[in-house]
Amino acid sequence: MRLDIYNWMPLSIPEIHDIFSEIPIHWCIAGGWALDLHLGKQTRKHSDVDIAITREQHLLAYQYLNQDWVLYKAEEGKLTLWQDQEYLHTTNDIWVSRSKDAPFVFQLMLLNTEGTSWKYNRNHLITRPVYELFLKTKEEIPYMRPEIQLLYKGGASQVREKDYLDFQTVLPILSPKEKAWLKSSLNLQFPEGHEWISSLK
């Protein structure tokens, strides 16, 4: 088990693209970097880099990544080694480093799917076709659609200051359709209300 959770030296987006373009799975850049890729510029410093893959393809990803990287399951504030052929039923995050002592360089987020549909892990009534999850930059780098990434940020148990700032930065360029989807999804997850909803007009 590793305890150095702040020991990060994230790879660049082009480096991530080089690694994952060799793996035959659906993947995309997620987190704050996904929003910056959508904006076409870096708007703030990022302490890590997130990559989203589907849970149904996570063992295939392991086969490729395990050749060069050490993979850790992140659960309940603990980091333990992901064992060979271990199917991860409930783990949602994997941290990756070059060795057991090296800094972490990227994180995998496992997305739940059913058939051809993605299911939001915090409310299974919120779904989208898997093919709608990703957009691509002009360099063909896939990234999570902004309204879906903002749902992950706004739907967390604790909305961090950087998540609110990301929302405010991206809000002006969201299309009416994207705003409507995010508003509807937040209403489903938070029927008692959410502070972002009033801004999604």
Q: Name the beta content range.
A: 15-25%
* Helical amount: 25-40%
Shape verdict = globular
**Please, what is the oligomeric state?**
single chain
State Rg.
17 Å
Distance between the termini: 46 Å
**Which structural class do you get from the secondary structure elements?**
alpha+beta
Low-confidence segments, given as residue ranges, are: none
SS field, number of helical segments: 6
Q: Can you summarize the main beta sheet?
A: 8 strands, mixed
Q: Give the number of DSSP strands.
A: 10
- What is the mean predicted local confidence, pLDDT? 97
Q: In sequence order, what are the helices and strands, one letter per element?
A: HEHEHEEEEEEEEHHH
